[in-house]
Amino acid sequence: MSIDAFIRRLERLDAEPDAPLAERRAAYERLHRERRPPDPAGLRVEDAHIAGVAVRRFTPRDAQSGCVVYLHGGGWIIGSTASHHGITADLAARLGREVVSVDYRRVPEASYATALADCVAVVNACTPLAVVGDSAGGRLAIDVAHRGWQGVLGLIYPVVGAPTPETLGEDAPLLSRADILALWQSVATAVPAIPAERVPTPTIEVLAVARDPLTRPLEAAVEAWRQAGAEVGYRCAPEMVHSALHGHAELPAMREAWQAFCQALAARLR
Is this structure's pTM higher than 0.85? Predict the structure, then answer.
Protein backbone atom coordinates (compact mmCIF):
# COMPACT_ATOMS: atom_id res chain seq x y z
CA MET A 1 0.00 0.00 0.00
CA SER A 2 1.16 3.57 -0.71
CA ILE A 3 1.28 6.15 2.05
CA ASP A 4 -1.22 8.30 0.11
CA ALA A 5 -3.74 5.43 0.07
CA PHE A 6 -3.21 4.92 3.80
CA ILE A 7 -3.83 8.62 4.46
CA ARG A 8 -7.04 8.60 2.40
CA ARG A 9 -8.30 5.61 4.38
CA LEU A 10 -7.71 7.23 7.76
CA GLU A 11 -9.01 10.62 6.66
CA ARG A 12 -12.46 9.05 6.73
CA LEU A 13 -12.24 9.28 10.52
CA ASP A 14 -12.21 13.08 10.23
CA ALA A 15 -15.19 13.24 7.87
CA GLU A 16 -17.58 13.86 10.79
CA PRO A 17 -15.56 15.85 13.35
CA ASP A 18 -18.72 17.03 15.10
CA ALA A 19 -20.21 13.55 15.45
CA PRO A 20 -20.84 12.33 19.02
CA LEU A 21 -17.72 10.98 20.69
CA ALA A 22 -19.23 7.49 20.96
CA GLU A 23 -19.67 7.39 17.18
CA ARG A 24 -16.13 8.62 16.55
CA ARG A 25 -14.74 6.00 18.92
CA ALA A 26 -16.79 3.27 17.24
CA ALA A 27 -15.60 4.33 13.78
CA TYR A 28 -11.95 4.30 14.97
CA GLU A 29 -12.33 0.82 16.44
CA ARG A 30 -14.13 -0.50 13.34
CA LEU A 31 -11.53 0.84 10.90
CA HIS A 32 -8.59 -0.70 12.73
CA ARG A 33 -10.41 -3.98 13.35
CA GLU A 34 -11.21 -4.34 9.65
CA ARG A 35 -7.58 -3.77 8.60
CA ARG A 36 -5.94 -5.75 11.40
CA PRO A 37 -3.65 -8.56 10.21
CA PRO A 38 -4.26 -12.08 11.59
CA ASP A 39 -2.69 -12.82 14.97
CA PRO A 40 0.71 -14.53 14.80
CA ALA A 41 0.55 -18.32 15.09
CA GLY A 42 0.57 -19.64 18.65
CA LEU A 43 -0.31 -16.30 20.26
CA ARG A 44 -2.69 -16.50 23.24
CA VAL A 45 -4.91 -13.43 23.81
CA GLU A 46 -6.81 -12.86 27.04
CA ASP A 47 -8.83 -9.93 28.39
CA ALA A 48 -8.29 -9.55 32.14
CA HIS A 49 -7.84 -7.07 34.98
CA ILE A 50 -4.60 -6.20 36.75
CA ALA A 51 -4.72 -4.03 39.86
CA GLY A 52 -8.36 -3.34 39.00
CA VAL A 53 -7.50 -2.00 35.51
CA ALA A 54 -8.73 -3.62 32.29
CA VAL A 55 -5.93 -5.09 30.17
CA ARG A 56 -5.45 -7.34 27.16
CA ARG A 57 -2.64 -9.89 27.49
CA PHE A 58 -0.75 -11.19 24.46
CA THR A 59 1.39 -14.25 25.23
CA PRO A 60 3.47 -15.96 22.51
CA ARG A 61 4.11 -19.67 22.57
CA ASP A 62 7.32 -20.38 24.57
CA ALA A 63 7.41 -16.77 25.80
CA GLN A 64 10.57 -15.64 27.57
CA SER A 65 10.28 -14.52 31.17
CA GLY A 66 9.54 -10.88 31.84
CA CYS A 67 6.69 -8.92 30.28
CA VAL A 68 6.27 -5.63 28.43
CA VAL A 69 3.50 -3.11 29.14
CA TYR A 70 1.96 -1.26 26.18
CA LEU A 71 0.10 2.08 26.39
CA HIS A 72 -2.01 2.85 23.32
CA GLY A 73 -2.43 6.15 21.52
CA GLY A 74 -5.56 8.01 20.48
CA GLY A 75 -5.17 11.51 21.87
CA TRP A 76 -6.19 10.34 25.37
CA ILE A 77 -9.77 10.44 24.00
CA ILE A 78 -10.12 7.49 21.60
CA GLY A 79 -8.16 4.26 21.17
CA SER A 80 -8.20 1.08 23.23
CA THR A 81 -6.60 -2.31 23.61
CA ALA A 82 -8.88 -3.42 20.74
CA SER A 83 -7.94 -0.64 18.31
CA HIS A 84 -4.23 -1.35 18.91
CA HIS A 85 -4.60 -5.15 18.96
CA GLY A 86 -2.70 -5.62 15.69
CA ILE A 87 0.26 -3.58 16.96
CA THR A 88 0.52 -5.28 20.34
CA ALA A 89 0.05 -8.77 18.91
CA ASP A 90 2.90 -8.16 16.48
CA LEU A 91 5.07 -6.67 19.22
CA ALA A 92 4.58 -9.72 21.43
CA ALA A 93 5.56 -12.04 18.58
CA ARG A 94 8.64 -10.00 17.65
CA LEU A 95 9.87 -9.76 21.25
CA GLY A 96 8.91 -13.30 22.21
CA ARG A 97 7.49 -11.96 25.47
CA GLU A 98 4.08 -11.34 26.98
CA VAL A 99 2.73 -7.86 26.19
CA VAL A 100 0.17 -6.38 28.59
CA SER A 101 -1.88 -3.69 26.82
CA VAL A 102 -3.56 -1.27 29.24
CA ASP A 103 -7.15 -0.11 28.66
CA TYR A 104 -6.70 3.03 30.75
CA ARG A 105 -9.64 5.35 31.34
CA ARG A 106 -9.97 8.18 28.82
CA VAL A 107 -10.81 11.86 28.62
CA PRO A 108 -13.41 13.35 29.01
CA GLU A 109 -14.98 10.71 31.28
CA ALA A 110 -11.76 10.67 33.30
CA SER A 111 -8.79 13.02 33.62
CA TYR A 112 -5.23 12.55 32.41
CA ALA A 113 -4.28 12.01 36.06
CA THR A 114 -6.72 9.07 36.22
CA ALA A 115 -5.34 7.58 33.00
CA LEU A 116 -1.81 7.90 34.36
CA ALA A 117 -2.86 6.31 37.66
CA ASP A 118 -4.28 3.31 35.76
CA CYS A 119 -1.01 2.89 33.86
CA VAL A 120 1.12 3.25 37.00
CA ALA A 121 -1.02 0.66 38.81
CA VAL A 122 -0.52 -1.93 36.06
CA VAL A 123 3.22 -1.23 35.80
CA ASN A 124 3.66 -1.51 39.56
CA ALA A 125 1.78 -4.82 39.57
CA CYS A 126 3.59 -6.30 36.56
CA THR A 127 7.12 -4.91 37.10
CA PRO A 128 7.72 -5.07 33.32
CA LEU A 129 11.11 -5.11 31.63
CA ALA A 130 9.89 -2.40 29.24
CA VAL A 131 7.05 0.06 28.85
CA VAL A 132 6.15 0.98 25.27
CA GLY A 133 3.68 3.65 24.17
CA ASP A 134 2.63 5.35 20.97
CA SER A 135 1.52 8.98 20.59
CA ALA A 136 -0.62 9.91 23.63
CA GLY A 137 0.38 6.56 25.13
CA GLY A 138 4.00 7.53 24.64
CA ARG A 139 3.46 10.54 26.85
CA LEU A 140 1.84 8.34 29.47
CA ALA A 141 4.86 6.03 29.27
CA ILE A 142 7.22 8.95 29.87
CA ASP A 143 5.21 10.06 32.90
CA VAL A 144 5.07 6.49 34.25
CA ALA A 145 8.88 6.49 34.14
CA HIS A 146 9.03 9.82 35.97
CA ARG A 147 6.93 8.21 38.71
CA GLY A 148 9.82 5.91 39.53
CA TRP A 149 9.75 2.96 37.09
CA GLN A 150 13.20 2.65 35.44
CA GLY A 151 13.22 -0.12 32.85
CA VAL A 152 13.62 0.13 29.07
CA LEU A 153 11.34 2.80 27.59
CA GLY A 154 9.97 2.42 24.06
CA LEU A 155 8.47 5.56 22.49
CA ILE A 156 6.63 5.78 19.16
CA TYR A 157 5.98 9.38 18.02
CA PRO A 158 5.15 10.51 21.59
CA VAL A 159 4.06 13.91 22.88
CA VAL A 160 7.05 15.36 24.75
CA GLY A 161 7.17 18.52 26.82
CA ALA A 162 4.36 21.05 26.56
CA PRO A 163 3.48 21.50 22.86
CA THR A 164 3.36 25.12 21.66
CA PRO A 165 3.23 26.74 18.20
CA GLU A 166 6.94 27.52 18.62
CA THR A 167 8.07 23.97 19.42
CA LEU A 168 5.94 21.98 16.97
CA GLY A 169 6.99 21.15 13.44
CA GLU A 170 4.99 21.78 10.27
CA ASP A 171 1.47 20.51 9.68
CA ALA A 172 1.20 17.03 8.21
CA PRO A 173 -1.58 14.72 7.02
CA LEU A 174 -3.71 13.08 9.76
CA LEU A 175 -2.29 15.31 12.52
CA SER A 176 -2.08 19.09 12.37
CA ARG A 177 -0.51 21.53 14.80
CA ALA A 178 -4.04 22.70 15.70
CA ASP A 179 -5.05 19.11 16.46
CA ILE A 180 -2.15 18.68 18.86
CA LEU A 181 -2.70 21.98 20.63
CA ALA A 182 -6.42 21.27 21.07
CA LEU A 183 -5.77 17.80 22.47
CA TRP A 184 -3.10 19.19 24.76
CA GLN A 185 -5.48 21.81 26.14
CA SER A 186 -7.91 19.03 27.06
CA VAL A 187 -5.36 17.46 29.44
CA ALA A 188 -2.68 20.08 30.18
CA THR A 189 -3.81 21.01 33.68
CA ALA A 190 -3.52 17.38 34.83
CA VAL A 191 -0.21 16.50 33.12
CA PRO A 192 2.84 16.49 35.42
CA ALA A 193 4.90 19.64 34.78
CA ILE A 194 8.18 17.90 33.93
CA PRO A 195 10.59 19.55 31.45
CA ALA A 196 10.99 17.65 28.16
CA GLU A 197 14.77 17.57 28.59
CA ARG A 198 14.63 15.65 31.88
CA VAL A 199 15.65 12.02 31.24
CA PRO A 200 12.76 9.63 31.96
CA THR A 201 14.86 6.42 32.04
CA PRO A 202 18.52 5.60 31.31
CA THR A 203 17.64 3.38 28.32
CA ILE A 204 15.23 4.51 25.59
CA GLU A 205 14.31 3.36 22.09
CA VAL A 206 12.47 5.83 19.86
CA LEU A 207 10.55 5.49 16.59
CA ALA A 208 9.46 8.68 14.78
CA VAL A 209 7.94 9.45 11.39
CA ALA A 210 9.13 12.12 8.98
CA ARG A 211 5.80 13.89 8.43
CA ASP A 212 4.57 14.70 11.92
CA PRO A 213 4.54 18.00 13.89
CA LEU A 214 5.63 16.01 16.96
CA THR A 215 8.93 14.90 15.41
CA ARG A 216 10.69 18.25 15.85
CA PRO A 217 10.23 18.47 19.66
CA LEU A 218 10.89 14.72 19.94
CA GLU A 219 14.27 15.04 18.22
CA ALA A 220 15.17 17.95 20.51
CA ALA A 221 14.30 15.78 23.52
CA VAL A 222 16.35 12.85 22.18
CA GLU A 223 19.37 15.10 21.85
CA ALA A 224 18.87 16.47 25.39
CA TRP A 225 18.51 12.96 26.81
CA ARG A 226 21.70 11.86 25.11
CA GLN A 227 23.56 14.91 26.38
CA ALA A 228 22.38 14.02 29.87
CA GLY A 229 23.89 10.53 29.56
CA ALA A 230 20.95 8.34 28.55
CA GLU A 231 21.39 5.60 25.96
CA VAL A 232 18.86 6.51 23.27
CA GLY A 233 18.29 4.64 20.02
CA TYR A 234 16.48 6.63 17.36
CA ARG A 235 15.06 5.91 13.93
CA CYS A 236 12.67 7.92 11.73
CA ALA A 237 10.50 6.30 9.03
CA PRO A 238 10.80 8.34 5.80
CA GLU A 239 7.59 9.68 4.21
CA MET A 240 5.49 8.17 6.99
CA VAL A 241 2.83 10.07 8.97
CA HIS A 242 1.40 9.97 12.48
CA SER A 243 -0.77 6.84 12.89
CA ALA A 244 1.29 4.93 10.30
CA LEU A 245 2.13 2.34 12.95
CA HIS A 246 -1.35 0.94 12.30
CA GLY A 247 -0.14 0.22 8.76
CA HIS A 248 3.07 -1.55 9.77
CA ALA A 249 2.00 -4.66 7.82
CA GLU A 250 1.10 -2.69 4.68
CA LEU A 251 3.53 0.23 4.43
CA PRO A 252 7.09 -0.88 3.49
CA ALA A 253 8.87 2.09 5.12
CA MET A 254 6.88 1.72 8.33
CA ARG A 255 7.40 -2.03 8.38
CA GLU A 256 11.16 -1.58 8.10
CA ALA A 257 11.31 1.08 10.82
CA TRP A 258 9.02 -0.92 13.12
CA GLN A 259 11.15 -4.03 12.64
CA ALA A 260 14.30 -2.06 13.50
CA PHE A 261 12.61 -0.60 16.58
CA CYS A 262 11.47 -4.03 17.79
CA GLN A 263 14.90 -5.56 17.17
CA ALA A 264 16.58 -2.77 19.14
CA LEU A 265 14.06 -3.20 21.96
CA ALA A 266 14.61 -6.96 22.02
CA ALA A 267 18.37 -6.43 22.21
CA ARG A 268 17.94 -4.05 25.15
CA LEU A 269 15.80 -6.63 26.96
CA ARG A 270 18.44 -9.31 26.52
Answer: yes
